[in-house]
Amino acid sequence: MASELRVNTLKDASGNNSVATSTVAEGTAKHRCNFDTDSSTSVLGSFNNSSLTDNGTGDTSFTLTNNMNNTTYSALAQSGDKTSTDTGLVAMQIYDNLTPRTTSLYRVHQGYVTSINNFIALDRDYNDVANFGDLA
Which tens digit of pLDDT belongs to each residue from 2-33? Predict the structure, then answer.
């Protein structure tokens, strides 16, 4: 039989460091994915990630297992490379105008920037994405 625990506040074992359960629920990542697109396109670790699609050099889409409630969720990303010889600022862009984010999919571009109008797309070794918001 399933059980349910209803509380407003969580505290540590000594009764200190309280936090509202709404903070825990709202502040927890609803999707995350650590992935490699350099040597192969592969998921190294994930949560709520149904699949990823390699759309071309430095261009990856993520499909969520459980949809977000709306498209105003926050999405974060970072990219790195263990053998990089990049001469610019490493960059990862979430959400492009060609494929707007949906409640079940978003797209990232990874690479580096050499000037304000010069983004060089690259497949990278270490990539992380996460999003925060409400699940549907």
Answer: 888 888 888 999 988 888 888 888 889 999 99
Strands 74-80, 19-20: pairing is: unpaired
Reduced to 3 states (helix: H, G, I; strand: E, B; else coil), residue 107 is strand
Give the ranges where 33-129 is alpha helix by DSSP (H): none
Q: Provide the token pair at 71.
A: 């498209």
Position 132 confidence tier, pLDDT thresholds 50, 70, 90 = very high
pTM value > 0.70: yes
Domain ranges, ordered by start, for the chain: 29-132
- CB-count burial class (<10 Å; 0-12, 13-18, 19+) for 82: exposed
d(CA 28, CA 118): 34
What is the number of residues in the chain? 136
Vertex 97 angle, CA 91 and 100, to 5°: 100
> Do 112 and 86 meet the contact criterion of CB atoms below 8 Å apart?
yes
Token pair belonging to 132: 């925060």
